[in-house]
Every structure is written in C-alpha cells, then in structure tokens.
Please model this.
Amino acid sequence: MATKDGPRSANPVDTHVGSRIRVRRQVMKMSQEKLGEELGVTFQQVQKYERGTNRVGASRLWRMAEVLTVPVNFFFDGLTGEHKYDAPEFAEGDQTPIVYDFIKSSDGVALATAVSQIKNKAVRRQILELARSLAKDQDDDE
Model:
C-alpha cells in the first residue's frame, strides 16, 4: 500500500503501533529475541514491527498484547482522527508526540522505569518539580 510519502514508506499508524510495542517491551526489559520467540517470529520481524515497516496483523497483535500484558487498545493510545487512516492526529495542545519521542529513547525508558519504582508519591512529585526547575533554568540561560 502506497502512502503519500512513497510506496515503501511506513504508514504513520503502523509506526505509532510499533513505537508502543517497543516502549512496552523495553519497560518489561524483554529483548526483541524473547518477544519474537513468544510470538513465533524472528527478532528481525520484531524490529520491522517496531519500526512500522511491517504491519502487525490482528491475531498477532492480540498475542502481542497477551505477551506484553497490556490490553490491545494500548497500542493505539494517543491516536485520534477518526477515519483518517493516512495520518494519526493528536489533540491540540496534546504533549503526546513529545512524550512518545522521549519515551522511545533509552534514557526515557530508563527514567520511566526508575521513577515508576518509587513508591512514595511525594518523592515522585519532587522529581517532577526538579525536572521542571532544570528545564526552566535551561530556558532562562538561552
């Protein structure tokens, strides 16, 4: 199927689903090889799913949700734009694209994992305030 970017371009929805697969796999500290074994595919196929190069079929997505212990709709969270298959949209002012870009990075996954393990809500809030303060200081310096 060709998109407006060319016949071999990944569809934005497939790319979004793939990034959600990658994030969840990394949060679970699961290798591509292990996920591939669970799904009955090669790690190269998992790589293609994560990049959005290959589309994940319905039954495989269902199995992936079981393996990654998330509901199927997890893979579509953040998408809007009903009936607009060619491009996902985000609500105006939505920070979702920024969050996805960050969480796809190794630092983002490591930070999210570490912070989520902190049980004390007040400590998590202090970390958030520290990050906001550092970001503000950086903006003031520029």
Residues 121-141 form the longest helix (21 residues).
